[in-house]
Amino acid sequence: MASLRCFLRSGKNAVSAVLRREFHRTPAAAVQVTVRDALNQAMDEELERDERVFLLGEEVAQYDGAYKVSRGLWKKYGDKRIIDTPITEMGFAGIAVGAAMAGLRPICEFMTFNFSMQAIDQVINSAAKTYYMSAGLQPVPIVFRGPNGASAGVAAQHSQCFAAWYGHCPGLKVVSPWSAEDAKGLLKAAIRDDNPVVVLENELMYGVPFELSDEAQSKDFVIPIGKAKIERQGKHITLVSHSRMVGLCLDAAAVLAKEGIECEVINMRTIRPLDTEAIETSVMKTNHLVTVEGGWPQFGVGAEILARIMEGPAFNFLDAPAVRVTGVDIPMPYAKILEDNSIPQIKDIIFSVKKTLNV
Protein backbone atom coordinates (compact mmCIF):
# COMPACT_ATOMS: atom_id res chain seq x y z
CA MET A 1 0.00 0.00 0.00
CA ALA A 2 2.82 2.40 0.83
CA SER A 3 4.43 1.83 -2.56
CA LEU A 4 1.12 2.48 -4.30
CA ARG A 5 0.77 5.79 -2.47
CA CYS A 6 4.27 6.83 -3.43
CA PHE A 7 3.37 6.01 -7.05
CA LEU A 8 0.28 8.20 -6.83
CA ARG A 9 2.46 11.18 -5.92
CA SER A 10 4.84 10.76 -8.86
CA GLY A 11 4.75 12.04 -12.41
CA LYS A 12 2.21 14.82 -12.05
CA ASN A 13 4.08 17.54 -13.99
CA ALA A 14 3.91 15.82 -17.38
CA VAL A 15 0.21 15.05 -16.99
CA SER A 16 -0.55 18.62 -15.91
CA ALA A 17 1.28 20.07 -18.90
CA VAL A 18 -0.86 18.05 -21.31
CA LEU A 19 -4.07 18.91 -19.50
CA ARG A 20 -3.34 22.63 -19.55
CA ARG A 21 -3.51 22.45 -23.32
CA GLU A 22 -6.44 20.05 -23.43
CA PHE A 23 -8.91 21.60 -21.03
CA HIS A 24 -8.67 25.35 -20.84
CA ARG A 25 -7.14 28.15 -22.82
CA THR A 26 -7.31 31.72 -21.59
CA PRO A 27 -5.62 34.88 -22.86
CA ALA A 28 -2.06 35.43 -21.69
CA ALA A 29 -3.07 38.59 -19.82
CA ALA A 30 -5.88 36.89 -17.86
CA VAL A 31 -5.50 36.20 -14.15
CA GLN A 32 -5.12 32.44 -13.96
CA VAL A 33 -5.27 30.16 -10.94
CA THR A 34 -4.84 26.39 -10.96
CA VAL A 35 -7.41 24.18 -9.30
CA ARG A 36 -4.72 23.20 -6.77
CA ASP A 37 -4.09 26.82 -5.79
CA ALA A 38 -7.82 27.60 -5.69
CA LEU A 39 -8.33 24.81 -3.14
CA ASN A 40 -5.32 26.06 -1.20
CA GLN A 41 -6.71 29.60 -1.14
CA ALA A 42 -10.08 28.33 0.06
CA MET A 43 -8.58 26.45 3.00
CA ASP A 44 -6.20 29.30 3.86
CA GLU A 45 -9.03 31.84 3.95
CA GLU A 46 -11.31 29.62 6.03
CA LEU A 47 -8.52 28.69 8.47
CA GLU A 48 -7.90 32.42 8.93
CA ARG A 49 -11.60 33.25 9.20
CA ASP A 50 -12.57 30.61 11.78
CA GLU A 51 -10.22 29.25 14.44
CA ARG A 52 -12.37 26.12 14.75
CA VAL A 53 -11.30 25.00 11.27
CA PHE A 54 -8.36 22.60 11.03
CA LEU A 55 -6.94 20.21 8.43
CA LEU A 56 -5.81 16.65 9.04
CA GLY A 57 -4.68 13.80 6.82
CA GLU A 58 -1.67 11.94 5.50
CA GLU A 59 1.29 14.22 4.67
CA VAL A 60 -0.83 17.40 4.70
CA ALA A 61 1.54 19.30 7.00
CA GLN A 62 5.33 19.15 6.65
CA TYR A 63 5.21 17.57 3.18
CA ASP A 64 2.65 20.21 2.00
CA GLY A 65 0.24 17.49 0.87
CA ALA A 66 0.66 14.58 -1.53
CA TYR A 67 -0.55 16.84 -4.35
CA LYS A 68 0.67 20.11 -2.75
CA VAL A 69 -2.90 21.28 -2.17
CA SER A 70 -2.04 22.23 1.43
CA ARG A 71 1.25 23.90 0.45
CA GLY A 72 2.38 26.48 3.01
CA LEU A 73 -0.47 25.98 5.46
CA TRP A 74 1.56 24.14 8.10
CA LYS A 75 4.19 26.86 8.16
CA LYS A 76 1.47 29.49 8.57
CA TYR A 77 -0.84 27.78 11.07
CA GLY A 78 1.34 25.23 12.88
CA ASP A 79 0.85 21.75 14.31
CA LYS A 80 -2.48 22.39 16.03
CA ARG A 81 -4.28 23.46 12.85
CA ILE A 82 -2.52 21.36 10.20
CA ILE A 83 -2.09 17.79 11.43
CA ASP A 84 -0.17 14.93 9.84
CA THR A 85 -1.75 11.55 10.57
CA PRO A 86 -0.62 7.94 10.35
CA ILE A 87 -1.74 5.86 7.36
CA THR A 88 -5.05 4.87 8.92
CA GLU A 89 -8.13 6.33 7.26
CA MET A 90 -10.55 4.75 9.71
CA GLY A 91 -8.58 6.25 12.60
CA PHE A 92 -8.15 9.84 11.48
CA ALA A 93 -11.63 10.02 9.93
CA GLY A 94 -13.01 8.93 13.31
CA ILE A 95 -10.94 11.57 15.09
CA ALA A 96 -12.25 14.20 12.68
CA VAL A 97 -15.89 13.15 13.16
CA GLY A 98 -15.46 13.26 16.95
CA ALA A 99 -13.89 16.70 16.70
CA ALA A 100 -16.84 17.92 14.62
CA MET A 101 -19.27 16.59 17.21
CA ALA A 102 -17.30 18.46 19.88
CA GLY A 103 -17.72 21.79 18.08
CA LEU A 104 -14.72 22.04 15.75
CA ARG A 105 -14.89 22.18 11.92
CA PRO A 106 -12.38 19.65 10.57
CA ILE A 107 -11.28 19.22 6.96
CA CYS A 108 -10.42 15.54 6.57
CA GLU A 109 -8.23 14.87 3.52
CA PHE A 110 -8.10 11.44 1.93
CA MET A 111 -5.01 11.02 -0.25
CA THR A 112 -7.51 9.56 -2.70
CA PHE A 113 -11.16 8.74 -2.20
CA ASN A 114 -10.34 5.17 -3.12
CA PHE A 115 -8.85 4.96 0.37
CA SER A 116 -12.02 6.42 1.91
CA MET A 117 -13.41 2.89 1.71
CA GLN A 118 -11.32 2.22 4.82
CA ALA A 119 -13.29 4.97 6.59
CA ILE A 120 -16.75 4.62 5.09
CA ASP A 121 -18.27 3.53 8.41
CA GLN A 122 -17.15 6.84 9.93
CA VAL A 123 -18.35 8.86 6.92
CA ILE A 124 -21.78 7.22 6.64
CA ASN A 125 -22.74 5.73 10.00
CA SER A 126 -21.08 8.34 12.21
CA ALA A 127 -21.05 11.60 10.23
CA ALA A 128 -24.01 11.37 7.85
CA LYS A 129 -26.63 9.90 10.20
CA THR A 130 -25.95 11.60 13.53
CA TYR A 131 -27.90 14.82 12.98
CA TYR A 132 -31.02 12.83 12.05
CA MET A 133 -30.59 10.23 14.79
CA SER A 134 -30.13 12.95 17.42
CA ALA A 135 -33.36 14.68 16.31
CA GLY A 136 -31.36 17.70 15.20
CA LEU A 137 -29.45 18.14 18.45
CA GLN A 138 -26.00 17.09 17.23
CA PRO A 139 -24.66 18.65 14.01
CA VAL A 140 -21.50 17.24 12.41
CA PRO A 141 -19.82 20.10 10.47
CA ILE A 142 -17.06 18.22 8.67
CA VAL A 143 -15.55 18.21 5.18
CA PHE A 144 -14.16 15.05 3.60
CA ARG A 145 -12.05 16.03 0.57
CA GLY A 146 -9.46 14.63 -1.82
CA PRO A 147 -9.00 13.39 -5.40
CA ASN A 148 -11.74 11.21 -6.87
CA GLY A 149 -12.10 9.13 -10.02
CA ALA A 150 -9.52 7.83 -12.47
CA SER A 151 -6.06 9.33 -12.65
CA ALA A 152 -3.44 8.23 -15.20
CA GLY A 153 -1.94 4.76 -15.01
CA VAL A 154 -2.96 3.88 -11.46
CA ALA A 155 -5.12 0.83 -12.28
CA ALA A 156 -8.25 -0.59 -10.71
CA GLN A 157 -7.75 0.01 -6.99
CA HIS A 158 -7.14 3.73 -7.48
CA SER A 159 -9.63 4.69 -10.19
CA GLN A 160 -13.17 4.59 -8.80
CA CYS A 161 -15.51 7.56 -9.04
CA PHE A 162 -17.42 7.78 -5.76
CA ALA A 163 -19.99 10.38 -6.82
CA ALA A 164 -22.75 7.77 -7.02
CA TRP A 165 -21.60 6.03 -3.82
CA TYR A 166 -21.76 9.12 -1.61
CA GLY A 167 -24.58 10.75 -3.56
CA HIS A 168 -26.69 7.72 -2.60
CA CYS A 169 -26.55 8.48 1.14
CA PRO A 170 -28.99 10.84 2.92
CA GLY A 171 -27.33 13.06 5.51
CA LEU A 172 -24.41 13.97 3.25
CA LYS A 173 -23.93 16.82 0.84
CA VAL A 174 -21.70 15.95 -2.13
CA VAL A 175 -19.97 18.43 -4.45
CA SER A 176 -17.80 17.75 -7.50
CA PRO A 177 -15.92 20.83 -8.79
CA TRP A 178 -14.49 21.26 -12.29
CA SER A 179 -12.87 24.69 -12.56
CA ALA A 180 -10.77 26.76 -10.16
CA GLU A 181 -13.85 28.87 -9.40
CA ASP A 182 -15.84 25.73 -8.61
CA ALA A 183 -13.06 24.41 -6.40
CA LYS A 184 -12.69 27.57 -4.34
CA GLY A 185 -16.35 28.47 -4.02
CA LEU A 186 -17.62 24.98 -3.27
CA LEU A 187 -14.88 24.15 -0.76
CA LYS A 188 -15.49 27.40 1.15
CA ALA A 189 -19.22 26.68 1.18
CA ALA A 190 -18.54 23.13 2.37
CA ILE A 191 -16.33 24.31 5.25
CA ARG A 192 -18.99 26.78 6.39
CA ASP A 193 -21.83 24.25 6.14
CA ASP A 194 -23.13 22.67 9.34
CA ASN A 195 -23.60 19.30 7.61
CA PRO A 196 -21.01 16.72 6.55
CA VAL A 197 -19.91 17.55 3.00
CA VAL A 198 -17.95 15.29 0.64
CA VAL A 199 -15.79 17.29 -1.81
CA LEU A 200 -14.82 15.12 -4.79
CA GLU A 201 -11.83 16.75 -6.48
CA ASN A 202 -9.98 15.36 -9.49
CA GLU A 203 -6.25 14.64 -9.52
CA LEU A 204 -5.89 15.31 -13.25
CA MET A 205 -7.39 18.78 -12.81
CA TYR A 206 -5.11 19.99 -9.99
CA GLY A 207 -2.53 21.54 -12.30
CA VAL A 208 -5.00 23.00 -14.82
CA PRO A 209 -5.24 26.83 -14.79
CA PHE A 210 -8.52 28.70 -15.16
CA GLU A 211 -9.35 32.38 -15.30
CA LEU A 212 -10.55 33.51 -11.87
CA SER A 213 -12.87 36.50 -11.75
CA ASP A 214 -12.45 39.38 -9.31
CA GLU A 215 -15.54 38.14 -7.49
CA ALA A 216 -14.08 34.65 -7.10
CA GLN A 217 -10.85 36.07 -5.68
CA SER A 218 -12.76 37.64 -2.80
CA LYS A 219 -12.51 36.07 0.65
CA ASP A 220 -16.30 36.21 0.85
CA PHE A 221 -16.84 34.23 -2.36
CA VAL A 222 -18.86 31.03 -1.98
CA ILE A 223 -20.87 28.95 -4.45
CA PRO A 224 -24.23 27.76 -3.09
CA ILE A 225 -24.32 24.00 -2.68
CA GLY A 226 -27.08 22.49 -4.82
CA LYS A 227 -26.88 24.89 -7.78
CA ALA A 228 -25.67 23.82 -11.23
CA LYS A 229 -24.06 26.19 -13.75
CA ILE A 230 -24.64 26.48 -17.49
CA GLU A 231 -21.11 26.61 -18.93
CA ARG A 232 -22.27 26.94 -22.55
CA GLN A 233 -25.63 27.97 -23.96
CA GLY A 234 -27.17 25.81 -26.70
CA LYS A 235 -30.48 24.95 -28.32
CA HIS A 236 -30.19 21.47 -29.84
CA ILE A 237 -29.14 19.15 -27.01
CA THR A 238 -28.30 19.26 -23.29
CA LEU A 239 -25.03 17.78 -21.99
CA VAL A 240 -24.90 17.26 -18.22
CA SER A 241 -21.66 16.32 -16.45
CA HIS A 242 -19.46 17.00 -13.43
CA SER A 243 -15.78 17.27 -12.58
CA ARG A 244 -13.26 16.58 -15.36
CA MET A 245 -15.97 15.48 -17.80
CA VAL A 246 -17.26 19.07 -18.03
CA GLY A 247 -14.10 19.95 -19.95
CA LEU A 248 -14.63 17.06 -22.36
CA CYS A 249 -18.23 18.14 -22.94
CA LEU A 250 -17.11 21.69 -23.73
CA ASP A 251 -14.49 20.38 -26.15
CA ALA A 252 -17.08 18.11 -27.80
CA ALA A 253 -19.51 21.02 -28.00
CA ALA A 254 -16.87 23.15 -29.76
CA VAL A 255 -16.39 20.43 -32.38
CA LEU A 256 -20.11 19.92 -32.87
CA ALA A 257 -20.70 23.68 -33.21
CA LYS A 258 -18.65 23.63 -36.41
CA GLU A 259 -21.25 21.23 -37.79
CA GLY A 260 -24.15 23.43 -36.73
CA ILE A 261 -25.05 21.48 -33.56
CA GLU A 262 -25.35 23.77 -30.52
CA CYS A 263 -24.94 21.92 -27.22
CA GLU A 264 -25.99 23.36 -23.88
CA VAL A 265 -23.38 22.21 -21.33
CA ILE A 266 -24.41 22.00 -17.67
CA ASN A 267 -21.76 21.73 -14.96
CA MET A 268 -23.58 19.98 -12.12
CA ARG A 269 -21.17 21.20 -9.42
CA THR A 270 -23.29 19.42 -6.79
CA ILE A 271 -24.20 15.73 -6.81
CA ARG A 272 -26.36 15.86 -3.69
CA PRO A 273 -28.65 17.77 -3.52
CA LEU A 274 -29.09 17.50 -7.29
CA ASP A 275 -30.21 20.62 -9.19
CA THR A 276 -32.97 18.83 -11.07
CA GLU A 277 -34.70 22.10 -11.95
CA ALA A 278 -31.73 23.39 -13.95
CA ILE A 279 -31.55 20.16 -15.95
CA GLU A 280 -35.32 20.07 -16.55
CA THR A 281 -35.34 23.68 -17.73
CA SER A 282 -32.57 22.96 -20.23
CA VAL A 283 -34.21 19.77 -21.51
CA MET A 284 -37.48 21.62 -22.04
CA LYS A 285 -35.55 24.02 -24.26
CA THR A 286 -33.36 21.56 -26.22
CA ASN A 287 -35.64 18.48 -26.20
CA HIS A 288 -32.61 16.15 -25.99
CA LEU A 289 -30.36 14.95 -23.16
CA VAL A 290 -26.98 13.22 -22.83
CA THR A 291 -25.27 12.73 -19.46
CA VAL A 292 -21.52 12.23 -19.19
CA GLU A 293 -19.59 10.80 -16.23
CA GLY A 294 -16.36 8.95 -15.54
CA GLY A 295 -17.96 6.45 -13.18
CA TRP A 296 -19.51 3.07 -13.87
CA PRO A 297 -22.95 2.91 -15.56
CA GLN A 298 -24.93 0.77 -13.11
CA PHE A 299 -26.75 2.90 -10.49
CA GLY A 300 -24.65 5.89 -11.56
CA VAL A 301 -25.15 9.65 -11.52
CA GLY A 302 -26.42 9.60 -15.10
CA ALA A 303 -28.90 6.87 -14.24
CA GLU A 304 -30.34 9.07 -11.47
CA ILE A 305 -30.62 12.08 -13.77
CA LEU A 306 -32.39 10.05 -16.47
CA ALA A 307 -34.80 8.63 -13.88
CA ARG A 308 -35.70 12.10 -12.60
CA ILE A 309 -36.27 13.40 -16.12
CA MET A 310 -38.48 10.41 -16.91
CA GLU A 311 -40.50 10.92 -13.72
CA GLY A 312 -40.81 14.70 -14.05
CA PRO A 313 -42.40 17.29 -16.34
CA ALA A 314 -39.44 17.42 -18.76
CA PHE A 315 -40.13 13.88 -20.01
CA ASN A 316 -42.88 15.07 -22.32
CA PHE A 317 -40.47 17.50 -23.97
CA LEU A 318 -37.98 14.81 -25.05
CA ASP A 319 -37.87 14.15 -28.80
CA ALA A 320 -35.56 11.12 -28.34
CA PRO A 321 -34.55 8.80 -25.51
CA ALA A 322 -32.04 10.33 -23.10
CA VAL A 323 -28.60 8.72 -23.28
CA ARG A 324 -25.76 8.09 -20.80
CA VAL A 325 -22.04 8.25 -21.58
CA THR A 326 -20.13 6.53 -18.77
CA GLY A 327 -17.02 4.61 -17.90
CA VAL A 328 -16.97 0.98 -19.01
CA ASP A 329 -18.44 -1.53 -16.55
CA ILE A 330 -15.10 -3.14 -15.63
CA PRO A 331 -12.33 -2.56 -13.09
CA MET A 332 -9.91 -0.01 -14.56
CA PRO A 333 -7.13 -1.64 -16.65
CA TYR A 334 -3.53 -0.51 -16.17
CA ALA A 335 -2.44 -0.43 -19.84
CA LYS A 336 -2.88 3.07 -21.29
CA ILE A 337 -4.73 2.04 -24.45
CA LEU A 338 -7.19 0.00 -22.39
CA GLU A 339 -7.52 2.81 -19.84
CA ASP A 340 -8.32 5.31 -22.59
CA ASN A 341 -11.07 3.03 -23.86
CA SER A 342 -12.50 2.55 -20.36
CA ILE A 343 -13.37 6.19 -19.67
CA PRO A 344 -15.34 8.62 -21.86
CA GLN A 345 -13.45 10.44 -24.61
CA ILE A 346 -14.52 13.43 -26.71
CA LYS A 347 -15.34 11.12 -29.62
CA ASP A 348 -17.73 9.12 -27.43
CA ILE A 349 -19.67 12.26 -26.52
CA ILE A 350 -19.84 13.38 -30.15
CA PHE A 351 -21.06 9.93 -31.22
CA SER A 352 -23.81 9.90 -28.57
CA VAL A 353 -24.95 13.42 -29.45
CA LYS A 354 -25.25 12.60 -33.14
CA LYS A 355 -27.00 9.33 -32.39
CA THR A 356 -29.50 11.09 -30.13
CA LEU A 357 -30.16 13.79 -32.74
CA ASN A 358 -30.24 11.17 -35.52
CA VAL A 359 -27.70 13.03 -37.66
From TrEMBL:
GO terms for molecular function: metal ion binding; pyruvate dehydrogenase (acetyl-transferring) activity. The keyword Ion transport does not apply. GO terms for biological process: glucose metabolic process; pyruvate decarboxylation to acetyl-CoA. NCBIfam families: PRK09212.1 (NF006667), PRK11892.1 (NF008854). Signal peptide: none annotated. It is found in: Mitochondrion. InterPro entries: PDHB_mito-type, THDP-binding, Transketo_C/PFOR_II, Transketolase-like_Pyr-bd, Transketolase_C. The keyword Oxidoreductase applies. Heterotetramer of two PDHA1 and two PDHB subunits. The heterotetramer interacts with DLAT, and is part of the multimeric pyruvate dehydrogenase complex that contains multiple copies of pyruvate dehydrogenase (E1), dihydrolipoamide acetyltransferase (DLAT, E2) and lipoamide dehydrogenase (DLD, E3). These subunits are bound to an inner core composed of about 48 DLAT and 12 PDHX molecules. Interacts with DLAT. Residues 33-208 form the Transketolase-like pyrimidine-binding domain. It catalyses: N(6)-[(R)-lipoyl]-L-lysyl-[protein] + pyruvate + H(+) = N(6)-[(R)-S(8)-acetyldihydrolipoyl]-L-lysyl-[protein] + CO2. It comes from Labeo rohita (Indian major carp). Keywords: Carbohydrate metabolism, Glucose metabolism, Metal-binding, Mitochondrion, Oxidoreductase, Potassium, Pyruvate, Thiamine pyrophosphate, Transit peptide. This is Pyruvate dehydrogenase E1 component subunit beta. Its cofactor is thiamine diphosphate. Its EC number is 1.2.4.1. The pyruvate dehydrogenase complex catalyzes the overall conversion of pyruvate to acetyl-CoA and CO(2), and thereby links the glycolytic pathway to the tricarboxylic cycle. The pyruvate dehydrogenase complex catalyzes the overall conversion of pyruvate to acetyl-CoA and CO2. GO terms for cellular component: mitochondrion; pyruvate dehydrogenase complex. SMART domains: Transket_pyr.
